[in-house]
């Protein structure tokens, strides 16, 4: 399934496939503060961001991911990125980051909830994974709001060299219960 043409509108958001149109936004907003709890590190130069976007566009076309930019409905202000990795597998992985100035408005939860609904309607999956640093309480509330349960935990060293204790949540499809 080619996901490079999918656009999803919600009450407050527009999710559009990632493109080079947002390279400056992503480069500017994916900062060391935003990446405090993420595996990736912030890009050092715009070319790093361009390379990331080009790889993401390719995996969207190949049907391996659904990597979207998150925009504010009405103004199309760039808010961040949301993704569903490994959609060609039976345990896809959710991810989200929202720029600092847009924190606290529920945009991350709305975007992830929307991707979960999309997955329920378009994918045949056992469960969605949502790994999150244990100390990142705002991000942990997202899978918990979707009925996610911690299935395992582990330590991980990010690309920035920071170690976090990761809790991995499983979020099941609406019509399936834990196995």
Give structural notes:
This protein has 179 residues and is an alpha+beta fold. The chain has a domain at 8-129: Aminopeptidase (3-Layer(aba) Sandwich). The chain has 4 helices and 8 strands; from the N terminus they run E-E-H-H-E-E-E-H-E-H-E-E. The strands form 2 sheets. The protein has a 5-stranded antiparallel sheet with strand order 1-2-3-4-5, with helices on both faces. The chain has a 3-stranded antiparallel sheet with strand order 6-8-7, covered by helices on one side. Helix 1 (23-29) packs across helix 2 and helix 3 (107-122) packs parallel to helix 4. It is globular. The model has no long low-confidence stretch (mean pLDDT 94).
Question: How would the blueprint of this fold be written?
Answer:
Elements: E1 8-9, E2 13-17, H1 23-29, H2 46-61, E3 66-72, E4 78-85, E5 93-98, H3 107-122, E6 128-133, H4 137-145, E7 149-157, E8 163-171
Antiparallel strand pairs: 1-2, 2-3, 3-4, 4-5, 6-8, 7-8
Helix pairs in contact: 1-2, 3-4
């Amino acid at each position: 399934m080619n996901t490079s043409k999918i656009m999803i509108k919600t009450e407050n958001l527009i999710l559009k496939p990632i493109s080079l149109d947002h390279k400056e936004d992503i480069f500017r907003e994916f900062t060391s503060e935003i990446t405090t709890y993420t595996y990736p590190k912030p890009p050092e130069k715009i070319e790093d961001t361009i390379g990331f976007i080009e790889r993401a566009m390719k995996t969207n076309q190949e049907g391996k991911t659904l990597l979207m930019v998150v925009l504010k409905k009405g103004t199309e202000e760039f808010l961040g990125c949301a993704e569903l990795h490994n959609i060609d597998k039976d345990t896809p992985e959710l991810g989200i980051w929202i720029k600092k100035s847009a924190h606290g408005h529920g945009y991350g939860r709305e975007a992830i909830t929307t991707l979960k609904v999309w997955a329920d309607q378009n994918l045949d999956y056992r469960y969605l994974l949502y790994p999150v640093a244990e100390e990142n309480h705002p991000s942990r509330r997202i899978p918990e709001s979707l009925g996610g349960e911690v299935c395992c935990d582990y330590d991980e060293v990010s690309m920035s060299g920071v170690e976090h204790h990761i809790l991995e949540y499983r979020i099941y499809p609406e019509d399936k219960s834990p196995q």
